[in-house]
Amino acid sequence: EPIVTPASPNETEDKHPALKKGKKS
Q1: Alpha-carbon torsion 4, 8, 13, 14, what sign?
Q2: How far apart are CA 1 and CA 16, in angstroms?
Q3: pLDDT tens digits, one per residue of 1-25
Q4: How far is the C-alpha of 15 from the C-alpha of 6, rounded, in Å?
């Protein structure tokens, strides 16, 4: 599974809350 995809970045962030936090911060 790709870490991030332009097609569904939100989906990836949802699966990886850590990435979401890193992006927001």
Answers
A1: negative
A2: 12
A3: 555 556 655 666 566 666 666 665 4
A4: 15
Residue 4 to residues 20, 22, 25: CA-CA distances in angstroms?
11, 13, 17
Residues 11 and 25: their CA atoms lie apart, in Å, by 18
- Please give the distance of CA 16 from its chain centroid, rounded to a whole number: 6
Query: Can you tell me which residue has the tokens 């332009």?
Result: 6
Is the Cβ–Cβ distance between 17 and 10 less than 8 Å? no
